[in-house]
């Protein structure tokens, strides 16, 4: 059974596509307490997705995948990447396959079939032809359960056709439970489970691959979380979400966590992420890397006195001490009380460490006062060593600069909108000129929405030469070919009530 499970999981890993309009016929055969549920796109699209996945790599890199596919084809006479071949053995290629885990680690596999008996015979033939030993008796023992034929192959492979799905698992009890579900009221099924229905609403419909649902306790009990994550926050996870999509021109991924909000620690964590502020993002279509981040800075002073927040609170204390020492200001009294909690970071030449961070403020006078206080501190600290001065920021005014202990020239500047720190006068000039994204339209391929508390845009065309150099890709033809095909990368972090997700889009060239 384990070899069969690995085979189907590998096939799922090659698939893409999961549409919002999908029916819940498989979910109706599973109990509401199902721990893990993974669903693919329709098999016809599954095949296209598998080919797209293979095409991401050159022949040498994809040799291992194609070798396994060719081996399967040579042994069984069936090409798993040919829709007609799969349809001829009884699979319904217009519908989706799925994998589910109930309470233990052994899954159930659901394959859509147009003819259960035809595929049942084909399944046995495939098992026989894939058996390298040729010594095992793999012909099934047939029993009947509620007028359904249940096939048993050896000790741990059980299969039955139920409601136009061919179900495969490791025990007769599991097959019987699926058959029983086909007679029960659907209110007891996964299709009506409150967590699962919430999961369906939170999926990114642009991610059309494989999608996975896992209950928090299932992941925790299986030891799939880091030891440091054990605690009240981890135990308050309602469900995890994962999705992926592989297309010819792009890769899409979604990772998400839904929390139960009956825990003050969870609420403190969620309160740190501040949505509804994307209108304060800069219109930046020029930088090599652009990062927008919005946090509720005032929440840092009210973090719970719990073990899971010890590191965060320690880091916050270190940050306050560093800012006091470096800039001569109190983080809370001078900055966070008047900051909108938004950070716009623009990165230019990474080798030259060119960057600027713009932080919108609630009050122009407070922004100017902050800048003056910092400049007074820097002047006192660096001017005696001739490491301090002023430089024009275009026609806007003057920025104070100083050379830090590493010899890097840093700039401090403020205007009516907010406060800037930079290591490049050209980027500082650019940031001061850029309007907010709301006033100038949306320059990114990704869609910006009010639920986002962070997003990042990485321009690979400009970054690629440095990446190739740093990673030594020039010495690896396979990796170099893949890097050369990468286009822009877009990442976003969102919060929708108690659900937090990270979405990534990677463009792929020819």
Tell me the layout of helices and strands.
Layout: H1 2-13, E1 36-42, H2 43-55, H3 63-76, H4 83-88, E2 96-101, E3 108-112, H5 116-130, E4 141-145, E5 148-153, E6 157-162, E7 165-169, H6 172-181, H7 194-202, E8 210-215, H8 216-221, H9 232-235, E9 237-246, E10 250-259, H10 264-272, E11 289-294, H11 310-327, H12 331-336, E12 342-347, E13 355-360, H13 364-382, E14 388-393, E15 397-403, E16 409-414, E17 418-422, H14 425-433, H15 437-440, E18 452-458, H16 460-471, H17 477-485, E19 486-496, E20 499-508
Antiparallel strand pairs: 1-2, 1-8, 2-3, 3-7, 4-5, 5-6, 6-7, 8-9, 9-10, 10-20, 11-12, 11-18, 12-13, 13-17, 14-15, 15-16, 16-17, 18-19, 19-20
How far apart, in Å, are the first and last alpha carbons? 39 Å
Low-confidence parts lasting 5 or more residues at pLDDT below 50?
1-21, 223-230
Overall SS class: alpha+beta
Overall pLDDT confidence = 85
